[in-house]
Amino acid sequence: MDNNYINLIEKITPEIIKIRRQLHMYPELSLQEFETCKLICSFLHKIGIPYKIVADTGVVAEIINDENYPTFAIRAEMDALPIQEETSCEYASKNENIMHACGHDAIVSIALGLSYVLYQTKENLKCNIKFIFEPGEEIGKGAKAMIKGGALLKPKVDRILIFHLANSLPVGMEIRKNVSTCEISSLNIKIRGKASHWCEVNKGIDAIKVAGKVICAVSEINDTYKSKMPFVVGIGTIRGGVKTNVIAESVEMKGTLRTFYERDRVNICKLLSKMQEKLQKESGSLIEIKTMPKIPSVYNDDELVTIGRKVGKSIFGKQHVTTSIKPYLAGDNAGFYFKRVKGARVVFFAEIEGEKNYPLHNSKFNFDEKIIPLAIQTIYKIITTKFS
């Protein structure tokens, strides 16, 4: 392989880090990424890559070498989170209560750096390249919007790669075999009791009391259900009651069910159903439980895992590449892409040495920027190895 790409990465890295910091200073919430979209388009225009805006703030850019070549797509999320930043870095967010606490600023920047390197070396590519800059990932709406806008078509995408950042380990990478992210289902529980004055307790059915038993039963499922893979069923919100002297007639709880295997989701739903029947009989209340799959799992393609592992070892060293870390119960709406196209998900680790590292979605989250050129190099080599 021509090593000219290394020089190109070194050349573009200072500009890419500036872009990352610019994005970090001016983050935008899901589906409001208008300035982020402008910055992406401006960079693509400057280096000569054609693009189009999709779903108002999303961007699709293409490097077409030959219509008969396969097409490799790279997805990059754009949106930030409604979090007030509490870091002390010089490029901290200037937008109140908005922060890139999930590394999407770096993901966009890495994709832009990669676009420059791939475009400069396009005569050596045996594939076409498509960049999908996706809005609204944090609210689970971006992938569907980009698919609806034709992001996987004309040319049809044959493989896709998505990547994330974490600071939980020293600089390195993970590319899991088989399942990489969990399936996320919504959980909605409604309890219907009977209102009464508290001075006539025997005439009422306390929906809040029943809700307490539901919460305990859900916790017991988490403690007792056995699976080879992580899972969780949890309640995040609870609402009920109208007045302090009135027995609550209704309660609504909402939460999440996260599993890696469909059989676990099915089994846990059966346990929830048994709980429902038992508590209804005991309390005389009516309990309605609904679960609805929202985001499918991401399954990594075996061939790309093999390539990614080999590439990663050549860049980070064998000790800093893993395929077997216990999976994190994160979901990604990129699962909708993976239902249509084979691909892989890579996690780049970028722990800041000598400092306390705060996790994703924390107001003090940050990472070591030296991962940026290494990530560009890794993805470039995966693509060019696959289509060599």
Automatic annotation (TrEMBL):
InterPro entries xref list: Amidohydrolase, Bact_exopeptidase_dim_dom, Peptidase_M20, Peptidase_M20_dimer
UniProt key word Calcium: no
Residues annotated as binding Mn(2+): C102, H104, E138, H164, H361
Entry EC number(s): 3.5.1.32
Cofactor names: Mn(2+)
Keywords: Hydrolase, Manganese, Metal-binding
UniProt keyword Metal-binding present: yes
Location of the Peptidase M20 dimerisation domain: 184-280
Any Pfam family: Peptidase_M20
Name of this protein: Amidohydrolase
Lineage, opening ranks: Bacteria, Bacillati, Bacillota, Clostridia, Eubacteriales
